[in-house]
TrEMBL record:
GO MF annotation terms: metal ion binding; metalloendopeptidase activity
Top-level taxonomic group: Bacteria
Domain Peptidase M3A/M3B catalytic stretches: 163-266, 306-545
Pfam families for the chain: Peptidase_M3
Family per similarity comment: Belongs to the peptidase M3 family.
Keywords: Hydrolase, Metal-binding, Metalloprotease, Protease, Zinc
Cofactor note: Binds 1 zinc ion.
Protein name, UniProt field: Peptidase M3
Cofactors that this protein relies on: Zn(2+)
Gene Ontology terms: biological process: peptide metabolic process; proteolysis
């Protein structure tokens, strides 16, 4: 019988039950039954992660529900408690005198992850972790509460997208002004929330013996193979090679449209003819995707059919639903779930193929022997998602109106290239924020303006007060909820663009290489997975040069000096 999401039911854990189960692991270790202990430890973690994922998903599906919020708060209160047990068991196994036996039972990469994990938690920061989760949830609920009036409609922030991409310039400007009105109205609250988050995180780092939160954050992200200096070099690669190309793309757009100046509300209109839109609404797009994945061959089509028929998709935008998109999973059943907010723009195709890449990877690696390996670290996970965006290019005739597939492909490539400067801008901003946690809100806003001048020198808000004063970063939820995550998109995009280049030469080989990467899941760190896929590491000097040249040729744009 096919698995159905509506039938999933994960037992609600209690502190007493968790203590009992983790205690059984310790007892098995006392009895030198290491294999049994590891099996039980893995089972407990899968059970807890499945329940926790469902709890977070339910809250995201309806942030206005008191029951959902209460369950989310309960999960937040349990997380430090569970982490304490997990860290204690990991530490015990890492300190086991018989390391040969431990090494035989666990992969070297799992052990390296555990060595990192045990440096990120101590009971002294348990309350701080709960507070961090609570504040992050407060941000999510505040953003989801937006009710914006435009075009005779009341929409949430996701619902602004069609207006923001309108071919009518006045409509785009209105959407921009309406958007930033909401953030200006809530600016003080957003500043206060972020200030509390920064200090909670800085205090956690101090309690654990770190000089600053940045080092702790990298460990929380399980980055075992590179550090801030490597990322800083990558940011400069983007600034050197990508920023000039994006400037030329935008200048061509300005000249084509006959605008005296290109403003921030002009940037979302990537195609002067109007951004190609999905071929239909939610139901049509979901059905067309089935044809697309069937066409691509292998098990992509059958897997997607399982998700669609089993109810593992929630793609429609609605009131009270959290913004954005994500993929989560339930490791006890080996099935992922895709959450998104369709709004009738090209974004629907982008987010859908992106999250489908995450889902497919998680499903392909569901048989790996330990819960730690089911997902890669997020830098590698984003390769799986972004690469699938490009690998679906040959089938875009199914997803957009007749004759618009090539326009969509060009728009998608331009959007991807334009993202890189913004992605490193967010990352550099966060590095400076946590190096100087006592900045005032005004100083943080001025810092963002400085970062925009460095990485987005074309950005002109046309006098709209809030973003012109440096408030644009408040709309980027990752800065609040997932510090230092955002660079993962940029690192992964550097790799995904290499899949794009490979697919232009041999689509079948590119798809085979992609499937093999998905199957590896999280069995190795980021740089090893990149190497195993035959890709150039983003940390390699000049990693973006050939990609930029290929993209410029594809878009028929001359690079500086050519």
């Amino acid at each position: 019988m096919a698995l159905r999401f509506s039938e999933l039911d994960f037992p609600r854990p209690t502190r007493e039950r968790l203590a009992l189960r983790f205690g059984q692991v310790s007892t098995l270790l006392d009895q030198d039954r290491r294999a049994d202990a590891l099996t039980l430890f893995d089972t407990i973690r899968r059970d807890y992660e499945s329940w926790s994922a469902m709890t977070d998903l339910r809250f995201s599906q309806d942030t206005t529900s008191a029951a959902n919020k209460g369950e989310r708060d309960y999960a937040d209160s349990l997380t430090p408690y569970v982490t304490a047990f997990e860290v204690a068991i990991k530490r015990r196994l890492l300190d086991d005198p018989d390391q040969q036996a431990v090494g035989a039972a666990l992969s070297p990469h799992t052990l390296e992850l555990w060595r990192t994990d045990i440096t990120t938690f101590d009971s002294r920061i348990a309350d701080a972790l709960e507070e961090e989760a609570r504040l992050s949830g407060e941000y999510t609920a505040l953003i989801a509460s937006a009710r914006l009036s435009i075009g005779g409609e009341t929409v949430n922030l996701s619902g602004l997208a069609p207006y923001a991409e309108s071919t009518d310039r006045a409509t785009r400007e209105q959407a921009e002004r309406v958007r930033w009105e909401f953030f200006a109205t809530n600016g003080t609250q957003l500043d206060t929330l972020f200030d509390r988050l920064v200090h909670v995180r800085a205090d956690m780092a101090t309690a654990l013996g770190y000089d600053a939160y940045t080092a702790l954050a990298y460990r929380r992200m399980r980055r075992v193979d590179y550090g801030p200096q490597d990322v800083a070099r990558f940011r400069e690669e983007v600034r050197t090679h990508v920023v000039p190309l994006v400037q030329r793309i935008l200048e061509r757009r300005r000249a084509t449209m006959g605008w005296e100046c290109l403003y921030s509300w002009d940037e979302p209109l990537i195609d002067p003819m109007g951004n190609p839109r999905p071929i239909g609404g939610h139901d049509v797009l979901v059905q067309q995707a089935q044809v697309m994945f069937d066409r691509m061959g292998g098990d992509l089509g059958p897997f997607y059919r399982q998700m669609r028929e089993g109810g593992f998709l929630d793609l429609q935008n609605r009131e009270g639903k959290a913004g954005g998109g994500f993929c989560t999973s339930f490791p006890t059943v080996g099935m992922p779930f895709i959450f998104a907010n369709f709004n009738g723009t090209q974004h629907d195709i982008n987010v859908f193929t992106h999250e489908m890449g995450h889902a497919y990877q998680n499903w392909k690696s569901r048989g790996l022997p330990a819960v730690d390996l089911l997902w890669p670290t997020m830098d590698a996970a984003e390769i799986n998602s972004m690469a699938l965006e490009f690998l679906t290019w040959p089938h875009m005739d199914l997803m957009v109106a007749q004759g618009e597939a090539e326009r969509y492909r060009q728009m998608h490539l331009i959007g991807s290239l334009s993202f890189l400067p913004y992605g490193v801008c967010v990352d550099h901003f966060q590095h400076e924020i946590y190096a100087h946690p006592d900045m005032t809100p005004a100083q943080r806003h001025e810092l963002w303006r400085e970062m925009e001048r460095r990485y987005l020198p074309w950005r002109d808000y046309g006098g709209i007060a809030h973003p012109s004063a440096g408030g644009r970063w408040q709309a980027q939820g990752h800065i609040y909820r997932s510090p230092f995550y955002y660079i993962d998109y940029a690192l992964a995009l550097c790799c995904a663009l290499q899949f794009w280049q490979r697919s232009r030469v041999d689509q079948d080989r590119a798809l085979r290489d992609y499937v093999a990467l998905c199957e590896r899941g999280g069995s190795a760190p980021f740089t090893d997975l990149v190497r195993q896929a035959g890709l150039t590491s983003p940390f390699q000097p000049g990693a973006l040069e050939e990609t930029v040249r290929e993209a410029a040729r594809y878009l028929n744009i001359a690079l500086p000096g050519e």
